Records
---
Amino acid sequence: MKHSKTSKSHELKAPTHAWLLGLWNQWFALNKDRFHYPLVCKRAGGYKLIMGFQGLHPGLTFEISMDGCNNGIYFSWDGAEDKALWECLHEADLLEYRTPDSQYYCGFCMEDKITYYPSREAQWEQHVFEQMLLWCNENLHSGRIIVPLGNESWDDETFGAWLETPENAVRRGYTNQSVWIPVVVGEVIG
């Protein structure tokens, strides 16, 4: 039975960090070979697990975060030692809801795009972890560049970074190749 967002579904409290990391560790043990570039743990503690990729620029990371308002996975570009240059390249948020008949879905999804899951674990694995894996493999590879924009101050509203192909960067007007950063370590772009 399908439910609308206005039915008697209710939002769930965020899972504990220990529960989410346990689920991630189980899923990752079974799926780590599906990543095109091996993942390595860069930092674990508090409410975050930060992972990097062997063979990719060390500033490219993703984090599993549960800080109360941001629950999910965030891919970021950290291009500076002082952490001033940071940009979220992609995010996989989850706002968990459970229907009266114990089906789980994401409250952020458009109503015509909602997928129902039989368990909380299945929801996290399919809606977040699998989507993150697909995004990594589709976007983090040879021939991709990071294009930093703006200046190094958070006061500049034009600051950001794009993950692009060189052709798209030129098409969009970002032609200063001296600031392009290859995603793959050692790759020459230009």
---
Amino acid sequence: MKFEPTQPGNPHRLTIQQHIFPSACIARFCDLSGRVRVKSRKSNKLSLVTGDDTRFKTQRSWDQWAEDGAAIYEKAYQKVADRYMTQVGLLPAADPAVVTQMFCSWNARFRLKDAPQEPVELKGIPPETCFSKDDEERCEKMGVVVLRSDSTVPARSRTGTQLVSCTNFLWHRFKNTQWVCVAFPQSNLSVPDHFELFPYLPLSPTRAFVDRSRETWTAQHLNKVAEEYAAGYFFCRLP
């Protein structure tokens, strides 16, 4: 089922295009033309695309409440990522938690990007109020779930709750990670569509956050593992 569109003009500024790997993260891998090279795992086809390519995002798979929560993690991460574009080593103080949260959010979003879009029926719960489309969107913007006149709620409301739960589940799995920023001069790191094998978060074509036990791995080794782990595609900067 196609995603549910907003009112014409999207008056409440609800997020429609939801990136799996943040667009600001993809931008660090783009060349001067604003493109990256993507390789399909299924067909081995190579494509040159921008960060707005459809394979990098989903459309209203989760609600605005969950999207806004993920945006908080991303905003904090981008500040840390910008700093480590010019430094390396073991991450101190609060930085590891920020990177872990971004890593978990990325993988949780990948898990739920293809969640069903059909409305969810809440049997035995009669609605008390009939909401207009505008009412629903105002409520979603405020993080409120609306029960419709047919006793259903949008699938994205359920998926939003699942996204938060999945992010928290991954957080408990990886929360003790000791992250290290490692530089790989003259390398070209690949970014898989997701990665849960071990803590690894590519930062740029020549830098990555990785757990301390693997800081001696080469870029070639990391690329091999990441590319084999990818489900649908991986991307890198144009060589």
---
Amino acid sequence: MINGKKTIIIFFCSALLFSVLILSGCSSAPGKSSAPSTAPTQSAAPSTVLVTSEDKSISITVPAGWNTNDMSLSPSGSAIIGVSNNQDYQYLIITRRAKSDFAANFNLNDYMADLKKDYDIELINPVWGQISSTTIGGCNALSVEVNGTTLHGKAEVYWISAIEGNNNYYCISGWTHKSKVETNQQIIESVINSFKETT
């Protein structure tokens, strides 16, 4: 009887060991993850767009969705880049003057003074902030914020940068409605600071 019990116990242990071995064979191979694989996601649309002047001499980067050729912002036709987002009241133009147009001792401060005269004519009672020296796109620059009312009676805020390039002076003027400053200032200043002279 004892031998019969031993036989039953041995048989039971052998069956249990066999079951463990079978189950082990169904597990994942060592080193391989059992986590489900995911299909590669489609790349997101670009969040910015590079805009270059017609002669490829300068470029800026603007948010995707902006009008990248809005020359209606410069009725005189003096702008070499005009960009806008009408829906959010974000506007920016770039003009330039050749250094050869000025006297040899003309400098960046003189150029900003000329720009101030122009805006004092174009705006009603403009209020000029403190002009600060900075660098934009590796070029020496002067930047200032101007609050004023247009000749059409719109209260607007401008961020103006006078930039000294290799052979030209550039004026970048970005603006928005006064009521939109909190939302738009950082976006417009980011576009201004993306300026690069490529030639």
